[in-house]
Write the structure tokens for this entry.
Amino acid sequence: EDQVTQSPEALRLQEGESSSLNCSYTVSGLRGLFWYRQDPGKGPEFLFTLYSAGEEKEKERLKATLTKKESFLHITAPKPEDSATYLCAVQPSSGNTPLVFGKGTRLSVIA
Amino acid sequence: DAGVIQSPRHEVTEMGQEVTLRCKPISGHNSLFWYRQTMMRGLELLIYFNNNVPIDDSGMPEDRFSAKMPNASFSTLKIQPSEPRDSAVYFCASSLNENQPQHFGDGTRLSIL
């Protein structure tokens, strides 16, 4: 069964304190890995897609990396506006399920 | 650009009533997805459509749930009869095709009393 596990469940950082969020996955074959950001009362907002091990994508203070078993979302010098829940999802290369989501990491950045 | 539009944003109704959730995907997107989000189970895919045709409905909890996509610009998710355990946030998402990033609406928060 395809599975996605995110850790930690919640993370509290001081403004400027860099850290990383983890997404571990087990799939029979990986077509792509997606990162989303979700603010309270809103739908998930697409951030990145990664397709192969070694690939990296960057956007402002966020950088996503991918290995064969996990992905990391690195947050450099975070600001309070980076506070949100970050969701990871994998797209298996077989079967009918387009995306399997993890339960997310709730990030709070304190000024 | 208009994103995915869902209505209503909030719905409170009594057990046993019929509930209809609505979704307008992004114009030009050929794939549409319905999800349910709860604290316990996270985001779960209920059903998805390609070119208005249902492809996988294995996530639909039971026969009380049904979804339709009569045309490329509209879809509904219906629950009849509703039960308290159906209370959740329901999201609709669309994408160019099933392999492209999905874009989500802001959801319908459903409460069944």
Chain A has a mean pLDDT of 95. DSSP finds no helices and eleven strands in chain A. The interface with chain B takes residues 31-32, 34, 36, 41-46, 49, 87, 89, 91, 96-99, 101-104 of chain A (CB under 8 Å).
